[in-house]
Amino acid sequence: MSQLGKRMHELIKPLSWLLGKWRGEVGKGKYPTITDFTYVEELEFVHVGQPNIQFSAYSWHPETNKPLHREVGFIRRKPDSDKIAFIIAHNLGVCEIEEGTFTESEIKVESQSLGRLTFGSDPATKKVCRHFKSDGDTLEQILYMETVNTPMTEHLRITYKKTWIIKMWIEKLTVVVVCLGCCIHGQRDRIDIKNDLTIDQVILGAMGGTNRAAASMTLPDPNRTLAELDMVLTKKQYDSMYGNSTRTKRKAVSDETVYWTRGQVPYKFAPNHFSAYEQWMLKVAMREWEKFTCVRFHEARQSDSNYVYFQDGLGCNSQLGMVGGMQILNLDKGGCRFKGLYLHEIAHALGVVHEHQRPIRDNYITILYQNVEPSMKIWFQKYNPAAIKSHNVDYELSSVMHYGVKAFSGNQQQTIRAKDQTRESEIGRVYAKELSFTDIEIVNRMYNCVKETSECDGVTCAGKGYLDQNCNCICPDGSQECTSGTTRDTSVSNNARTDRENWMCYIWSRQGECQRNPGYMNSNCAKACAQEKKNTQGQSGLCENTYDDATCDKWKNEVGDCRVAENFMKKNCRKTCGYCNDFTANRTPPQTQCMNAHNNDTACEVWARKGECIVNDRWMPLNCRKACFTCPFDEQTVNTVKPSGSTTPTRRPMTTRPPTRPPVITTQPTTRKPVEDCVNRYPDKDCDVWARYKHCTINPTFMEANCMRSCKVCQDNDGGVGVTKNPVLNNCKDTWTSPEMCPIWAEHQHCVINPGFMLKRCAKSCRRCTTGLRQAAEQVVQENTENSARTLIGTLSSLSLMLLLLFIIV
Ligand SMILES: [Zn+2]
User: Fold this and answer.
1) 177 and 94 share one domain
2) Do residues 72 and 194 both lie within one domain?
3) Which residue ranges are tagged as binding site?
4) Residue among 108, 129, 107, 125 nearest 116 (CA)
5) Residue 795 has pLDDT above 80, yes or no
6) Residues acting as catalytic residues
7) What is the distance in A from the centroid of ligand 1 to the CA of 205?
8) Ligand 1 centroid vs 310 CA: distance in angstroms?
9) What is the DSSP letter of 559?
């Protein structure tokens, strides 16, 4: 199925440059007996640990998408030599053995034997020669052919590019796994990761690689543009940010109408698109923005006509600011589910643009244009200064809005170089991402959250510090030492040295890491933890929340912050969490009678601090009642007997997978069953559910062997192997004024990217004439996901899941 997880056979190693998926957009075909033609082709070379390489080649018409030539086969190498053989079956009814030699970048083979059908069409092919030549991420193939009528003549010529999503994911597999681990193990792993993916790489991966992303940049909908990989801009926004005429300058995106009214952002989750854990994590990301700014998120009510709609769509992208009505924020299941990315996309929804395109960027970074993919150069253009309000906020390399150092690279080389080389490693990392001082400042200034000294009893903040919504100074190092009249606290040895390190410590301490991860935090962030502890002690006076009551209630109920970020809440939401009188006990009144039903109190505590009371909201509040603060009132004061057997745990927390997930087993690749025998081996009911949850993509080996009907992977009627398609109705038409564009857009995935336009005006090319718009969009998305990312992401997910499970078990 894939090379992932398989040890490469020694014999194959010298050919490893060939492995992976290649795509050629402009193949040229000619032959004396036919008219010249063009074609698109994908090649895939895969090894499964055996001394051979499996390969497949699929070509199709660039405009009509009509499938053309197909071939499948194996490559074998003669041991201890440069001899190589291709064993090939063609869909035209020919099979052949080609032999020749290879080097570290070239293969030359010619046919030694050719098998033909007795009823094959004429003229018969006599001989075929092919020549592969690789140059890093490109691969050229030239094929010559001789028939009984025509001597050896060039027939096909094409240059492929590596579909680098695959390469990237393979390279980064270890890191992804490590990072999944850090969700479990806490901060220590997160900060130690040096080689993780950047935000742009994650987004590009979810979009299916550079080519597709490039194609997506010109949406046929004249009113929308997908800019910079992940910002969907209205025409007005695009013109003002990228246009340079004086006329458009005036219609600036800095126009405050794109900001959410009174900083209130309603949102909805698409039903079943996010697991409980993912929803929780998204809310945690929103809470991060709320904690440091005056922006507030709430689940959309009937009366909210403008809201953000989180869904599992193609790519990771958001509209910029509030655009009116329901606005989609796509977080692809296939690669966008990370907190760092949530912070980033939510910021776009708030109206924040990318850091590396700010007009002042040239003082901080250099763009290496020679390495930028030509079609992507536009996305390094600096924004029109008139269109962007910078609010005099400093440029920040560690901003959550900064793309990585290889963003939009056409050759895998660096495209962004930091002027301050010592800080280059801070750029763009997505997993380790937390909000920077400037990210918070820009939103605070955009939404008028910054208070004046006169509103705060004369408090002033030195240097870059400013007054937040609660009249506290936000200082660049996260301390409160820029507040007027405060002296620097030198009583605690401070291991974090720079302002930015101190800032990160401060963010983490507010997230509860000092309690959750004391080993790491005490040695690296001692000062931040000491400050936090001091804040929670010796408080007296009124039992009031620092933040408004509704916000504190929300953090308590939606995110579980009374446990997850306990010390932060002790200071800021003391009333809501019931911490007013006794800061040393867990809660007031002391819960001496309140007991966890689960027999391991420590485990309950650990789970509660990780948010399990919310994520695992059936099991935890019942079995870890003390840890989740869910004891009934009478239990808090009256002696009760610890609940017995009936409430002992039935499920350990942190298994956030749906119970219907099929087992993750890897077997040898399965052969696909012919149509008449296209049945599921598991009950249809189960297979259909699994397929609906995209397990055909996530776990293709199992699913294609056991749920082939539900995954639609049976043989076509014409004998080709492929996914069965819905029939196209005869009266189905592309109604757009230039219908010839429809198949091209469809090929470039616009049925998925821009279904609103495409399904209406290019219904035929999107093959969606029979179903409703919404259903159609879902189908296209699903089909697309299955086709594009099936093997790779599938395997990756399975592997990651297994490892994740291992972490949990350990
Ligand atoms: Zn972005």
Assistant:
1) no
2) no
3) 344, 348, 354
4) 125
5) no
6) 345
7) 14
8) 15
9) I
